[in-house]
């Protein structure tokens, strides 16, 4: 499986600086948090579109089953743009990062591991950094999504919050 996966999906070229990598690895994160962001950056999250591509499934197998809007479940959709997850991000932004951040800023920060220049404000900066808020939120969305996938637990945005 691993060899087939590697051959079908070579590593993408990344536009992440050494400084951003060093900054990311220095953050106090759990393995789950590191795993999610690392897979996202490398475009290796097990979302429906990637799994469908690997296993040669029909196009309908790529659709998001959480929002039921016939949208392809890409990694970005899985973590950011699916409507229930978009709601979670809006609540996180309003609670912690408002008014200087939007979902696109968080998405771009994660893709480039550039948390210092894109996420500059947190209401509780004496306790939390914007990067930590964003990454913990990302991991909680990931966990709730896979509770839905493996345990058939409905994705409830309020449980994530």
Can you walk me through this structure?
This protein has helices at residues 2-8, 18-26, 31-41, 48-55, 75-81, 83-97, 103-112, 115-118, 130-151, 157-160. It has 161 residues and is an all-alpha fold. It is globular. The model has no long low-confidence stretch (mean pLDDT 89). The chain contains 10 helices and no strands.
The percent range for helix content is: 55-70%
Task: Report the total helices.
Answer: 10
Q: DSSP strand (E) fraction?
A: under 5%
Distance between the termini: 36 Å
> What is the average per-residue confidence, as pLDDT, rounded to a whole number?
89
User: What general form does the structure show?
Assistant: globular
Largest sheet: none
Assembly type: single chain
Q: State Rg.
A: 16 Å
Elements, N to C (H/E): HHHHHHHHHH
Number of strands: 0
In terms of per-residue confidence, which ranges show pLDDT below 50 for 5 or more consecutive residues?
Answer: none
Helices and strands: which structural class? mainly alpha
């Amino acid at each position: 499986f691993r060899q087939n996966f590697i051959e079908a999906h070579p590593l993408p070229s990344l536009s992440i600086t050494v400084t951003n990598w060093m900054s990311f690895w220095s953050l106090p994160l759990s393995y789950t948090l590191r795993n999610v962001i690392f897979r996202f950056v490398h475009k290796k999250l097990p979302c429906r579109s990637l799994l469908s591509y690997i296993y040669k499934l029909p196009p309908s197998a790529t659709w998001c089953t959480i929002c039921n809007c016939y949208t392809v479940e890409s990694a970005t959709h899985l973590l950011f743009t699916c409507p229930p997850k978009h709601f979670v991000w809006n609540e996180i932004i309003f609670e912690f990062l408002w008014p200087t951040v939007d979902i696109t800023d968080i998405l771009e920060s994660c893709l480039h591991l550039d948390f210092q220049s894109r996420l500059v404000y947190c209401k509780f900066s004496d306790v939390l950094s914007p990067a930590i808020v964003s990454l913990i939120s990302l991991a909680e969305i990931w966990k709730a999504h896979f509770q839905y996938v493996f345990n058939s637990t409905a994705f409830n945005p309020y449980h994530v919050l």
